[in-house]
Specification:
Number of helices of chain A: 14
Radius of gyration of chain A: 24 Å
Number of strands of chain A: 2
Structural class of chain A: mainly alpha
Helix content of chain B: over 70%
Mean pLDDT of chain B: 84
Low-confidence stretches of chain B: 1-33
Distance between the termini of chain B: 22 Å
Strand order of the largest sheet of chain A: 1-2
Mean pLDDT of chain A: 89
Number of strands of chain B: 0
Largest interface: A-B, 122 and 119 residues
Order of helices and strands of chain B: HHHHHHHHHHHHHHHH
Shape of chain B: globular
CATH superfamily of the domain at 102-311 in chain B: MetI-like
Order of helices and strands of chain A: HHEEHHHHHHHHHHHH
Structural class of chain B: mainly alpha
Largest sheet of chain A: 2 strands, antiparallel
CATH topology of the domain at 102-311 in chain B: MetI-like fold
Distance between the termini of chain A: 14 Å
Strand content of chain B: under 5%
Helix content of chain A: over 70%
CATH class of the domain at 102-311 in chain B: Mainly Alpha
Radius of gyration of chain B: 25 Å
Oligomer: heterodimer
Chain lengths: ~325, ~325
């Protein structure tokens, strides 16, 4: 199904080239590399080249005007004592570790209600999916800024019940929460993946379970969850990778400064400020590699942990 | 269990019908039971609908409220949480349209240029690479395929600093090239993967028949494969449209001259410049900016949902 399962199967199939395959290799090489040319150029010039360059820059002091100056591990040691950076890590971790599970839980819940040939499913599905298409836009971030503002929609509704709500976005203790809520609001895409996965579970399992007198809850834990676990895993990996890179919402909602008092200063936002606000390109590059490392570690943990809870039918 | 998801269905209707039939049957059999049982079933489904309507309404409410508010006099935005309109106020749209240096249409044209360039780039470069990966045998194929899959998960931030340096040295800052050229080089590897999956579902006999008739790879690609992968091309077009239209980070970095602003950065400039009194026109332009995405959603939903369900993207 996914790039993830492709990758793991690639590593399993290693070293199996037959003689026939080798003969075929020779035949198509020229044509293949012509077809691959745009991608190869992109890989070298837009991806791998810049990656190596950024790795180099992370060991330098560079402001775009003077040539990069080698400073060794200086950028990384600076990070160790950069309190704003530590704070940005805390904000980002909170966002990912709270937002992702919450979003997936809602996605799964709604997918479970939507499954089983409910009438009007296409309509409901559209309604739940639409926010995830619009959620990444500046326009929706602007809307969020109003809704959770001091005199925004949420507080207007609360006022109807006589409650005086705080300025959700201007209060450091709730600002991040409003952005997490925006993330949860975009649960439509994982919901659709869950729906597709639920449809793959053979009905006979449930029928057999019912014959044996299993309750709905038992069916959920014993059939749905194990059968769906590869899909949950897939969503988890994708959402974690994506959420670490989240930028637009926090940028717009906080007016670009990660405020109030750095409470929405995402790691990416801080990276942007360092690189493109202060043109501290060496430091920004070092931060980018730290981000890559963090995402890599999280993905690795995910894969290792998956051995204990993801169930493969085949 | 992922096998069925693994290939995009070649004939359109296969999974388009959202799998109602498989799940319906057992329910019919169930309701053959006692009257009390079937009443319980009906009650359960009624409750499901109630939950879904409530949840769906909550999800969509902010968007509806934004539309309604954009048609209201400005001061009502901070006082009126309801959805009823006493009069239709178009002034927010006229004032918003001309609130920035250029009329808003200027930014929409800029966005359209980037979007069209990106779509063409992705269609050409990704389909070519996908053909090579799906159909041709060549040296280091597995290695390249693995790298391609990995680049899907690579955070953009790791390459953005050197990319910026590169493009600024060529003198491309404040042009649309940094936003379009990477697409011409198939850096949206995600679509390569999507197309590979699709091409794998096309029977190989078709290629072989064409080859026996003397067709070379360019011809097989153009005459056999491309016409058959229109659904995958449509999915690519739609996702590229939405992602590029919403893209904020790239435009924020590369486009600093108001003449070149795309819609998201123009909106951001609007937020920053606005005094507290112009929320109405800000909402109005936000809606204008969401309208193209909404239209694509309405007409392309089938491709969107299939694309997500089979490959798991946002």
């Amino acid at each position: 199904m996914s790039a993830i399962s492709e990758l793991s199967s690639l590593s399993r199939r290693k070293g199996k080239a037959t003689a026939e395959e080798k003969k075929a290799n020779r035949r198509d090489n020229k044509a293949a590399y012509i077809f691959l040319l745009p991608w190869l150029v992109g890989l070298v010039a837009i991806t791998i080249g810049p990656m190596l360059m950024s790795l180099y820059l992370s060991f330098t002091d560079y402001n775009l005007l003077q040539p990069p100056e080698w400073t060794g591990l200086d950028n990384f040691t600076r990070m160790l004592s950069d309190a704003r950076l530590h704070n940005s890590l805390r904000v980002t971790f909170t966002y990912v570790l709270v937002g992702v599970p919450l979003q997936l839980a809602v996605a799964l819940l709604i997918a479970l209600v939507l499954d089983k040939g409910l009438r009007g499913l296409p309509f409901y599905r559209s309604v739940f999916y639409l926010p995830s298409l619009l959620g990444g836009s500046v326009a929706v971030a602007i809307l969020w800024k109003q809704i959770f503002g001091t005199t925004g929609l949420v507080n207007q509704v609360l006022a109807m019940f006589g409650i005086q709500g705080p300025g959700w976005i201007s209060d450091p203790s709730t600002a991040l929460g409003s952005i997490i809520l925006l993330h949860v609001w975009t649960f439509g895409a994982p919901m659709i993946i869950f729906l597709a996965g639920l449809r793959q579970i053979p009905n006979m399992y449930y029928e057999a379970a019912r014959v044996d007198g299993a309750t709905t809850l038992q069916q959920f834990w014993r059939i749905t969850m194990p059968m769906l676990s590869p899909i949950i895993f897939f969503n988890l990996v994708l959402q974690i990778i994506g959420s670490f890179q989240s930028f637009t919402q926090a940028f717009i909602v906080s007016g670009g400064n990660g405020g109030p008092s750095d409470s929405t200063m995402f790691f990416t936002l801080y990276l942007y400020q360092k690189g493109f606000g202060q043109f501290d390109m060496g430091y920004a590059s070092a931060m980018a590699w730290v981000l890559l490392l963090i995402i890599g570690v999280f993905t690795a943990i995910n894969f290792i942990a998956s051995k204990y809870w993801v169930f493969y039918d085949d | 269990m992922t096998t069925k998801l693994e290939t995009l269905p070649t004939p359109e209707k296969k999974s388009g019908g959202a799998g109602k039939p498989t799940n319906r049957k057992p329910r019919v059999r169930e309701s053959r039971g006692t009257l009390a049982f079937s009443r319980a079933q009906r009650g359960k489904s009624l409750m499901k609908h109630a939950i879904l309507i409530l949840a769906g309404g909550l999800m969509i409410y902010p968007l509806l409220w934004m539309v309604v508010s954009s048609l209201r006099p400005n001061d009502l935005i901070f006082r009126e949480p309801g959805l009823w309109l006493n009069s239709l106020e178009m002034s927010n749209y006229t004032s918003g349209w001309s609130a920035l240096t250029h009329p808003f249409g200027h930014y929409m044209i800029n966005s359209a240029i980037v979007v069209i360039g990106s779509i063409l780039g992705n269609l050409v470069s990704c389909s070519m690479a996908a053909y090579a990966f799906a159909r041709l045998q060549f040296t280091a194929k597995k290695l390249f395929f693995g790298i391609m899959l990995l680049t899907i998960m690579l955070p953009f931030h790791v390459v953005i600093v050197p990319q910026y340096i590169l493009f600024s040295q060529i003198g491309w800052v404040n042009t649309f090239w940094p936003l379009i050229v990477p697409k011409l080089l198939a850096t949206d590897a995600f679509f390569v993967f999507l197309m590979v999956q699709f091409i794998r579902g096309i029977p190989k006999e078709l290629d072989e028949a064409a080859r026996i008739d003397g067709a070379g790879h360019p011809r097989i690609f153009l005459r056999v494969i491309l016409p058959l992968m229109v659904p995958a091309l449509a999915t690519t077009t739609i996702f590229t449209f939405i992602w590029t239209w919403n893209d904020f980070f790239g435009a924020l970095i590369y486009l600093t001259d108001p003449d070149m602003f795309t819609v998201p950065v123009a909106l951001r400039a609007f937020v920053d410049s606005q005094s507290a009194t112009s929320w109405g026109s800000l909402f109005a332009m936000s809606i204008v900016s969401l309208l193209p995405v909404f239209l694509v959603f309405l007409f392309g939903q089938r491709f969107l949902i299939k694309g997500i369900a089979t490959t798991g993207i946002k």
